[in-house]
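Sanity check record (used in CI):
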Amino acid sequence: MKNTIVGIITILTFALMAWVASKGGAYHGGDHAKGIGSFADATTTTQAAPAEKSDEEKEAEQIKALKEKAGNIGNFKVSDAYKSKCAACHGANGSGEQDGRKLMGPKLYGQNADKLYQDLIDFKANRKENVIMRGLLINTSEEELRKFADEIGEFPARAAEVNK
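Expected output for C-type cytochrome:
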C-alpha cells in the first residue's frame, strides 16, 4: 500500500514538473521575465551623483569619528574567561554595546571592583534575580568572581594606557 502511494506521488510530481517546464514560466525566463527587463539594461544606465549630505549627517559622522578616536575602549586585552562568560552580554570591553548596538547586559565599564564583586556574589546566591547570570555563576568559585570583578574594575585604566 505504501509503495503504491509513493509511486502515485512520484508520478504526480514528475507530471507537474513537466507541465511547468512546458509553460515556460518565470523560472525559465518566459513571458513573466520579459516584464522586468534585462540585467544588461540595468547595468548600462548611469546612476545619479549622490546627493550632498545635510549638516545633520555631517555632524553625526564627525561625532562618530570623535567617539571612535577618543572613546575607543575596545583596544585593550581581556582574559579568555571574561570573553567566554561576560563579553556576549556586556561587550568585549564592558560597554554594554557592540558595533553600535545595545547588548542584553548593562554597562560594566567604569564600575568599582568591590561593587561588581558584591553584585556577582548576589547573583550567584540569587539575592539579585537574573537567570542568565545565576546560570553562568553557579559553578564559579568566589576567587574567580573576585578575579572577574578586579579585571572589569581595571578596564578604565587599561583603556587609558592604550589611548596614550
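Confidence is low (pLDDT under 50) at residues 69-73. If this sentence no longer matches the regenerated C-alpha cells, the check is flagged for review.
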